[in-house]
Specification:
There is one protein chain. The protein has about 190 residues and is mainly alpha-helical. The chain folds into 2 domains: about 140 residues, Mitochondrial carrier fold (Alpha/alpha barrel); about 40 residues, no CATH class. It is built from 8 helices and 2 strands, in the order H-H-H-H-H-H-H-H-E-E. The longest helix has 26 residues. The radius of gyration is 23 Å and the shape is elongated. The two termini are about 35 Å apart. It is found in: Mitochondrion membrane. Its main location: mitochondrion. Belongs to the mitochondrial carrier (TC 2.A.29) family.
Length: about 190
């Protein structure tokens, strides 16, 4: 559906057509590639985050800017490093006909080794890094926001979102505006009722 000139009219049309023409296994064609990509991504992500925190926040105190910066760098490095796996996964998922027919490949591409060979044939080493900029730009804010929330002394929780502890008898939706003030190592959180 996300491909240019997609032959599918809707998600359900895509699902029915793929199941009928390629079988149920087509939905899991790149599953091993996805798993193979996620393990190194997360490993690189956490190692880079911890490395950055050792450099910018060695006392491990809550400083939102240090978590934002460390998270952003960690996401960028992990995304860039695993882009070759993402390119192969995308090729397996989309089975891009124009690309495959340019190499006289008929039928369906399967398996990570075949995807790696095909990407190399299509674009050489540079082919493995197509889309690296978009992937990095996507990951930077995503991981920065995630880490500042993970490390927060006031993580968003369902109790906060229901308004518990605010003196209301009925659950209410609240927005949380965090004002983190370092006053004798204590933090202040301001709730704003919507």
């Amino acid at each position: 559906m996300q491909m240019f000139n997609s032959p599918y009219k809707s998600v359900w049309h895509c699902v029915r057509t793929v199941r009928k023409t390629e079988g149920f296994g087509a939905f899991y064609r790149s599953y091993t590639t996805q798993l193979t990509m996620n393990v190194p991504f997360q490993a690189i992500h956490f190692i880079t985050y911890e490395f950055m925190q050792e450099r910018v926040n060695p006392r491990r105190e809550y400083h939102p800017l240090s978590h934002v910066c460390s998270g952003a760098v960690a996401g960028a490095v992990a995304a860039a490093a695993t882009t070759p796996l993402d390119v192969c996964k995308t090729l397996l998922n989309t089975q891009e006909n124009t690309a495959l027919s340019s190499l006289n490949i008929t039928g369906h591409l399967s398996g990570m080794a075949n995807a790696f060979r095909t990407v190399y044939q299509l674009g050489g080493i540079a082919g493995y890094f197509r889309g690296v900029q978009a992937r990095v730009i996507y990951q930077i804010p995503s991981t920065a926001i995630a880490w500042v929330n993970i490390e927060s002394p006031f993580p968003m929780s369902s109790a906060v979102l229901r308004g518990e502890g605010l003196g209301f008898e009925e659950p209410v939706m609240v927005g949380v505006e965090m004002e983190l003030v370092d006053i004798e190592k204590k933090y202040v959180c301001t709730y704003v009722i919507i």
